[in-house]
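Many introductory courses stop at the sequence. We go one step further.
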Amino acid sequence: MDPRSATYDTANDRFKRGFGDWFWYSIAGAAIFHIVLFAVFPTMSAAVDERMVSEMEAIDIPDDIKIPPPPEQIARPATPVISAADISEDITIAPTTFDANPIENLPPPPSSSAGDADLSAAPTFTPMTVRPELQNRADVQRALVRNYPPLLRDAGIGGSPTVHFFIDENGRVLRTLLSQSSGYPALDDAAIAVAQQMQFSPALNRDKKVQVWVEIPIVFTAK
């Protein structure tokens, strides 16, 4: 007998032949299991929580809403009428030019009743019509170079501290105060040293020399 013509019974063939029996056995077993389960399992029912039940209240339905009537028509403003009467020239403003009001007839400038000592005590507003002008610019430029802190100059650090000056009637600096710091104490001290060497022209309030407070920045620039 030729071995190539022989048939072999494989596991797959045996599974196919027994599939029908296993299928129906499984259906029957599942049905029996569910019947027994429903027979022995206790009956379940939904419970009502009385705490969640609230009494219903009757709501009174309001009457129909009454719409108020529209507001009355606002009266239009009256039309302006140009008066036919002549305007008197007596109510016009008097001329304010120097030709109509010479300087000689003007009142004197206000003076400080507190005295010069009180005026120089702290920076304050001082009236003036002509500001003082710096007279020794060349000396101040040399003072800037001379008083520039070497460490800050070599590092390329500059600044512009602001200094208050109290200047007398002759343009001399009587007092200096630091107004705004540059952020570097050495530059602030140098600015005060330079400020004390400045000379100014007198400040004027009209035609009178007066003592004044001014504020000037001292600029240090590294080149």
